[in-house]
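Protein Record: Sequence and Backbone Structure Tokens
======================================================
Tokens: labelled as protein backbone structure tokens, with as many entries as the chain has residues.
Question of interest: how does this chain fold, as expressed in backbone structure tokens?

___
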Amino acid sequence: MHWTPIMIVPISLSDFGITELLGEDEGDLYTKTLATLGYIAPEYGLDGLVSTKCDVYSYGILLLETFSRRKPNDFEGDLSLKQWVSYLLPDAVMDVVDANLVTQTGSCLQMELHVVASIMKVALDWCTEYPARRTNMKDVVGILQKIKIQLLAC
């Protein structure tokens, strides 16, 4: 059977681009919720409010999922992926991060863990409940580029 690349993309990626519903002159839009639970911004899930900050929220959740290898719905009760990560960081990075991502040993291990903790901390900032506190996607790219430079220094 032949598989195309689109078939192996995680379902969570489908949430990105939700702001494509917005016209060029629109800052906000109200719509019915059509997204994957766990990845949608609270204002979109509860009120149907779409803004560019919804994609920032979803991207933050995706980064937490990628670096922890845990899905947003892996938790029981009221505990969420965001809460779990925030409870454990920065002291227990090794308990949060997917062990397959840690490749260094010795002094470089601490640097690598610091970089991963930095990524997860900004991801938590991006998936805050309050859209006004989330950064814009242009700044997201800049922040990640600075973190990449730190990682390459090791």
Notes: Strands lie at 29-30, 49-50. Residues 53 and 132 are 8 Å apart (CA to CA). The radius of gyration is 17 Å.
